[in-house]
Design goal:
By secondary structure, the protein is mostly helical. The chain has one domain. It is 83% helix and 0% strand. It has nine helices and no strands. Helix 1 packs antiparallel against helix 7, helix 6 crosses helix 7 and helix 7 crosses helix 8. The radius of gyration is 21 Å and the shape is globular.
Length: 197
């Protein structure tokens, strides 16, 4: 019974993310195609469409900047931990220094991880409001970034509350903690917002 409930939650989350990946970037194009098929030729409608196309991308800066800062604070411990692991792996250090660095990493994770758990869902909620209050016609990369954030936050919540079967928990953990996912999220959001700006 419990497995069926978890399976339903995971499948629902997967399908929602899939829909997000496939449909969100094409919403703007669908509206444009619909207008061209209808073939509106009235002067007033033509002027209205021209005004919409000439309008610049309009982003709600307050929600965007708030979410960005909260994400930065929430994931500071993650970035610091990744840097420390890379330093201990690739920089020639004595074993005593490596031990001290690893102890520091364990202490900072112990004290800062709670911010990671609670601030990321709050930041994601603000990001959804940012997306709803913004208009982006130049690029679909911000929407792709939103989907990647949804994927990461969703996997994080599944892992935190242990609502997945034990058999796939390790795989979800690997995906969620993979530095490539974090790099992809930051890159897509930075590139997408630079195009929009």
């Amino acid at each position: 019974m419990k497995w069926q409930k978890n399976r339903t939650i995971i499948l629902t989350s997967f399908y929602l993310m899939l829909i997000c990946f496939l449909l969100v970037p094409s919403l703007g194009m669908a509206d444009r195609d619909k207008r061209s098929r209808i073939g509106i030729h009235k002067e007033k409608d033509y002027e209205h469409r021209k005004h919409i196309q000439e309008r610049k991308d309009d982003g709600n800066e307050a929600t965007g900047e708030t979410a960005a800062w909260i994400f930065a604070v929430a994931n500071f411990t993650v970035v610091l931990s990744i840097l420390i692991k890379w330093i201990t792996r690739f920089v020639p250090l004595t074993s005593q220094v490596k031990d001290q660095v690893n102890k520091f990493n364990n202490v900072q994770k112990k004290h800062l991880k709670r911010f990671h758990y609670w601030l990321n869902p709050i930041a994601f909620t603000i990001v959804v409001f940012h997306w709803l209050l913004s208009h982006c016609r130049s690029s679909s990369l911000p929407e792709l970034g939103l989907c990647l954030v949804l994927l990461s936050v969703g996997f994080g919540l599944i892992l935190k509350f242990k609502i997945s079967p034990v058999s796939i928990r390790k795989t979800l953990y690997r995906i969620h903690t993979n530095p490539i996912l974090l790099l992809a999220i930051v890159s897509v959001l930075l590139i997408g917002h630079s195009i929009v700006d």
